[in-house]
Specification:
heterodimer, A: 109 residues, mainly beta, five-stranded mixed β-sheet, four-stranded antiparallel β-sheet, 9 strands, globular, B: 117 residues, 11 strands, 51% strand
Chain lengths: 109, 117
């Protein structure tokens, strides 16, 4: 079962930062947080992952709270092509991914 | 790098027939592949974990005799939907882990849309 909760939908103005929250209050000490996104009728695309430190790559930044019970994915300058469903996933011990409902992000021109 | 393909991309079949979907890792070896199903406007649901050379592990509620999984090589896993019915119509997506990388990141295929008439 999914161990994450996310808002159902969000809007963001083009060019602005998109901040997508995720709650994972039951996360265990050795479980990683992964973020993927899915554009309509395509396979999910990897964005970023982390354990307890903040992470940044060319796509996004991941901010994990000190107690690890929540995290925020930041898209620094959202474009129209960032419109997608964003999934926050906790990787369990067996390495499976259990997807939650995700957040449907709409970037508005 | 890390490309996963699926074949076919879409398929229409008649009720009662069987359909095979292939998942290939094109530029890496994958000891573990995963199969998901996604109904319209819903999230991905993990069906099974496919391990090369051994039996697949199915999630609770997924019928192993209906959804046959074979992972005969490090680059190919197949999902066969047997005796398909209209309720099996869905978007089937596979993913794979790269054996060589020290990471549990999953690389997803583009999905296969199955329609059972």
């Amino acid at each position: 079962d999914a161990k994450t909760t996310q808002p159902t939908s969000m809007d963001c103005a083009e060019g602005r930062a998109a901040n997508l929250p995720c709650n994972h209050s039951t996360i265990s000490g050795n479980e990683y947080v992964y973020w993927y996104r899915q554009i309509h009728s395509q396979g999910p695309q990897y964005i970023i992952h982390g354990l307890k430190n903040n992470e940044t790559n060319e796509m996004a930044s991941l901010i994990i709270t000190e107690d690890r019970k929540s995290s925020t994915l930041i898209l620094p300058h959202a474009t129209l092509r960032d419109t997608a469903v964003y999934y926050c996933i906790v990787r369990v011990a067996g390495n499976q991914f259990y997807f939650g409902t995700g957040t449907s992000l709409t970037v508005i021109p | 790098g890390a490309v996963v393909s699926q074949h076919p991309s879409w398929v229409i079949c008649k009720s009662g027939t069987s359909v095979k979907i292939e998942c290939r890792s094109l530029d890496f070896q994958a000891t573990t592949m995963f199969w998901y199903r996604q109904f319209p406007k819903q999230s991905l649901m993990l069906m099974a974990t496919s391990n090369e050379g051994s039996k697949a592990t199915y999630e609770q509620g997924v019928e192993k005799d209906k959804f046959l999984i074979n992972h005969a090589s490090l680059t190919l896993s197949t999902l066969t939907v047997t005796s398909a019915h209209p309720e099996d119509s869905s978007f089937y997506i596979c993913s794979a882990r790269d054996l060589a990388r020290n990471s549990y990141e999953q690389y997803f295929g583009p999905g296969t849309r199955l329609t059972v008439t």
